[in-house]
Amino acid sequence: MLEALSRSEVERRYSRVREALGRDGLDAALVCGTEYTGFEGQVTYLSGFQIVHRYAYVLLPVDGEPTIVFPAEARYVGEHSTSWIDDQVFADHPGAWLGDRLRGRRVGVYGLDYVMTVRDFAALREAVELVPWDLEFDHARAVKSDEELASVRESVRINTEGFHAFRDAYEPGRSAARVLAPAERLFVDQGCGRLTMNMVLVGAEFALARDDIVLGDFCIPSLEIAGPGGHWVEVSRALGAPSAEVSRMLEAYEEYFEAARTGLRPGATAHDVHRAVSKGFLGRGYHLGHVTGHSIGMTMIEFPKIGEGVETELEPNMVFSMHPHAISADGRECLYMQDTWLVTADGGEPLAGLEMKIF
Q1: How many Cβ atoms from other residues are within 10 Å of residue 74's Cβ?
Q2: What is the spatial distance between Cα 296 and Cα 17, in angstroms, rounded to a whole number?
Q3: In this structure, what is the dihedral angle of CA atoms 65, 82, 37, 19, given to the nearest 10 degrees?
Q4: Cβ(320)–Cβ(293) below 8 Å
């Protein structure tokens, strides 16, 4: 169960989203969530409800009280009493119910392209003007409150302890499942519940930590969790003996780390930060196999991303996951290490406090 929020924090979230709705000439926000680890948190953000099964919608009008809508064919999709929203609807056809409720309105939808079910979209589009609204919703929640930052820091603490548990269990020749197991036990014991997505890198690709994957002299874990407050973070370091090529990648990582300290500051654009932190990798001829960084919160990947051409200006108390994925020219070697950063008036603060090195 997620930690309870203050009423002032709930109202702060609604106020920011409603301000964005008014700016964009919309009557309501419809936030879609589904059981997809790391990508259901937008529903939690607006309702306190954590999806366990199927999907759910949160309807937040510019004026009036919010509603959370569940599909009636699966009466249990989570612990409904954990939501602070009183108006809970179990609809035989959620799209048809929402269409009747919103007929003639202009509605900003988070998850229109990737999350909303086909049957609900088919019903809604006949009655409602649906406006894709992922980026706008994420921008409205990108600046974290003090209450949220306390949750972020707790998640970072848990994830960092999990990394050390993984590190203590790591030995060449052990299976990935055996090495990850102590960290996963710690994550569950510390209140993460289902909200973990942890892997290892094999070559330049991600893989689940299975018994048939045997770790060698060099290991790259990818550790991504959300603590009791529901805020996702990513913290990890490589382990073992790197090759000469990977040692060169580490040099670029050291340069990125210093560039992020100075670059993640109010007024800088996401494009500026991307250029600064990727310079050392691209200058050495490496490919970047994953987005350089992205806003992170109750959904694992949020806008703005740290990337080419993203002109969003950073603000204090934005939180970013940074993880340049350096891949060698032949595609056979890589380095991928993760940090969760806070934007402050003095620049970027890496919240885990881990040295930038291969342990």
Answers
A1: 12
A2: 17
A3: 20
A4: yes
Q: How far apart are CA 324 and CA 285, in angstroms?
A: 14
Taking Cα atoms as reference points, which of 69, 135, 76 lies closest to residue 102? 69
- Kindly give the pairing relationship between strand 205-208 and strand 55-61: unpaired
7-141 classified as CATH 3.40.50.1000: no
CA 351 to chain centre: 16
- Is pLDDT of 1 > 70? no
Where along the chain do its domains lie?
A: 7-141, 146-350
**CATH architecture assignment, domain 146-350:** Alpha-Beta Complex (3.90)
pLDDT in tens, 8-46: 999 999 999 999 999 999 999 999 999 999 989 999 999
Q: Which of 312, 230, 292 is nearest to 1 (CA)?
A: 230
* Pairing of β 287-288 and β 319-322: unpaired
Q: Which own/partner pairs from 164-168 qualify as long-range (CB within 8 Å, at least 24 positions apart)? A: 166/221, 166/223, 166/239, 167/237, 167/239, 167/359
Run of H or E residues at 10: helix 7-23
**What is the pTM (predicted TM-score) of this model?**
0.96
- SS3 label, residue 127: coil
Report how far apart, in Å, the C-alpha atoms of 195 and of each of 95, 296, 297 are. 28, 14, 12
Quote the pLDDT of residue 76: 84
Q: Mean pLDDT over residues 260-282, rounded?
A: 97
